[in-house]
Amino acid sequence: MERLRTQRIRKEVAQALPRGPRCPSCLRVSLPLLLTLTLTNAACSKKTSPAASATPAPATSDATGTRGEPQTYPSDSGPLPQIDSKRAFQYIKDIVAFGPRPLGTENHKKLENYITSHLTGDQVEDDAFTAETPEGKFPVRNIIAKYPGSKDDIIVIIGHYDTVYPLRKQGFVGANDGGSSTAILLEYANQLRGKKRDGYSVWLVWSDGEEAMKQWTETDSLYGTRHLAEKWDKDGTLKKIKALFVMDMIADADLNIIRDTNSAPWLLDLVRAAAERSGVQSHFYSLEGAIEDDHMPFVKRGVPCVDLIDLEYGYNNLYWHSPQDAVDKLSPRSLEIVGNTTLEAIRMVDKR
Ligand SMILES: [Zn+2]
Asked: Biggest alpha carbon distance in the chain?
């Protein structure tokens, strides 16, 4: 019975995945091999490998990546972090009001200015370049804000701000996909600003060009983070990164953060432990799968990464990359759950 039940749930996950003409870009999910036939789709042509399941995720994984005894963390009597979720939600509304924000558009430029205008007085750097894409050359700009800590080394938090180029004329405003990641990072900046951290420095990266310009491939996706990872590899920054978090689609009112098997097991466990401290762990890891997102260029270079993403956005994931990705599907409470958990998680990384 258990096996049957599991397979049925797996199928639902499979059906939740993108299909048809609206699936070309953004992150990519790998699926169980047994389901590949149901997913075969010329427009999508996603490669699959055994990975995803809707079975309950394992309780823990040890630091070596094998599943074992639960890892314990030192108790922390300090107050739990608390973001201003109303303020963060207002950021999403402001961002969506610009309209579609793909590379090379006036709305994209407006959003760049919106982000930097909220970082006045902070240490802000650009990683700007021209990307060769299947749609031609486009300017790409990662915006990086740095908040110093007392310890050497760095924790990085990345969230993309571009929206899907192929959907630019179809009313796609990416409230969750692009909007929520931009907004939560702006709120992290509010929380980090004006005080030296008792821990690692935190660098926030509003990444650009996460979405594919035509159809997701190794070279048509992750333009910003592929460039940044290469740059940080050359200048030695990567060696200093203790942990890298990615935020993507984290404001769905029905919040269900997937357990991404491309992420570092110890960081997945640490995030779960952070969620448990606020009693919000039921929103984490009931689904499992291998996600390709902005962390991948860093994963490939050995950086410990975790991707926090909810890819069960509406029944059968129907709101993903659709005009239905609008503010009415989102909740400030979801921003609060992910935001507080992430801030608690980085505090736990400080203490490792
Ligand atoms: Zn997307």
From this structure: 59
Q: What would the mean pLDDT of 145-173 be, rounded to a whole number?
A: 97
Task: Give pLDDT tens digits for 39-51.
Answer: 222 223 222 233 3
pTM metric for this prediction: 0.85
Q: What average pLDDT score do residues 301-328 get? A: 97
How much of the chain is helix, strand and coil, in % rounded to 5?
Answer: 40, 20, 40
Structure tokens at 340: 């507080």
Locate all alpha helices (DSSP H) within the chain, ordered by sequence: 2-15, 36-39, 85-97, 106-117, 181-192, 223-234, 265-277, 296-299, 332-351
For residue 180, pLDDT beyond 50: yes
Quote the ligand 1 centre to 249 CA distance (angstroms): 8
Highest mean pLDDT among 1-5, 9-13, 170-174: 170-174
Confidence band for 15, pLDDT divided at 50, 70 and 90 = very low
Q: How far is the centre of ligand 1, averaged over its atoms, from the C-alpha of 25 (Å)?
A: 6
Is-contact 45 17, C-beta < 8 A? no
Spatial distance between the Cα atoms of 203 and 3, rounded to a whole number of angstroms: 44
Using the mean position of ligand 1's atoms as its centre, give its distance from the Cα of residue 23 in Å: 9
Please give the order of strands across the beta sheet that includes 305-309: 123-133, 136-147, 197-207, 149-160, 241-248, 305-309
Tokens of 205: 């990266």
Distance (Å, whole) CA 98 – CA 340: 27
- Count of residues in the chain: 352
